[in-house]
Amino acid sequence: MVEKAMTIKTMPQEDQLGSGHGACGGCGLSTAVNNVLRILGPDTVVYAPASCLLVFSAAYPISAFKVPFIYSAFENTGAVISGISAGLRKQGKQTYVVGIAGDGGTFDIGLQALAGAAERNDDVLYVCVDNEAYMNTGTQRSGSTPFGAWTTTTPVGSKTQGKRSFKKDMMCVVAGQDVAYAATLSIAHPNDFVKKVEKAKAMRGFRFLHIMTPCTSGWKTDPAVTYDLARLAVETGMWALYEIENGETTVTYRPEEMLPVENYLKLQGRFRHMSKEDIDTLQRWLCKRWDQRYHTDMVSKEEPKGDKELAMCGEETEGL
Ligand SMILES: Cc1ncc(C[n+]2csc(CCOP(=O)(O)OP(=O)(O)O)c2C)c(N)n1
Ligand code: SF4
Ligand SMILES: [Mg+2]
Predict the structure, then answer these.
(1) Could you tell me if the CB of 290 is within 6 A of ligand 2?
(2) Which residue minimizes the CA distance to atom 6 of ligand 2?
(3) Could you give the C-alpha distances from 104 to 4, 37, 142, 242, 245, in angstroms and in order?
(4) In terms of residue numbers, what domain contains 242?
């Protein structure tokens, strides 16, 4: 008999991240982590570096995690989970080892340790909960922050208008190391989410899950629109759902048509200042990405424009 795939309705309901933690109302990150841990179950060890997750769930001496939880330095996720995994395997245990780091701890400062674990194909699950800035320290930009976004280190004023460079393609960086599995997830696509976590759980070797997690505080949004933001991100091309296995990329959800990015931007205070020119620049970058991802022809349907607007470089970067 073929077993039915797990869905958001049939997945385990036992929480491994207890209620009563201190995440903001409408926090996408807490929803994502809660669901990942429900699927991984009680035989799991969690590592989280400095991040919102650490601050809202595990400020010493209390912890909202019901499973063993470890913390060391911000930049160490890849290295620490590799060590925990090696120790447990030596003891003959099959306990799941998961590192859950933010975008700052993954795209920027934790990249070296992540790359080491990926290159060794260590038997760990690495989850990046991506809220597109360094949020717990007061919203500084990261390599994940999108073009145009306000952060405290990409300010808006007469000389500069938010971040001047584009979001880094982290999946490309990780998948370039021939890892066992890499996938992108959205909290607005729960069955796709559950399927990918289940799949990663069943595999061995280095697995990477990249989850977009809207942040009410840093994105300056109404907590009630967290789900809409996650959904619109996919429909506008700001986020795409796919997985990479054995070097093969499979799109797991393809939007029927591309919605204008403005629909997504206008719900968020961090983009409120954006000029028409900057929105057009972002839109064209997205069209290019969309064409590559879904094999369409969005760019040529647009008005012809020079390459300059896509060629953001150091001279034009943000700063004070
Ligand atoms: C080596 C080091 N540099 C800087 C810090 C300060 N710091 C702690 S968390 C953090 C930002 C974390 O951002 P991210 O990983 O995106 O997680 P988020 O807070 O957004 O959840 C920074 C800069 C630190 N703890 N260690
Ligand atoms: S600042 Fe953002 S990511 Fe952090 S707890 Fe609040 S909503 Fe969640
Ligand atoms: Mg972050």
Answers:
(1) no
(2) 24
(3) 37, 21, 6, 22, 25
(4) 28-311
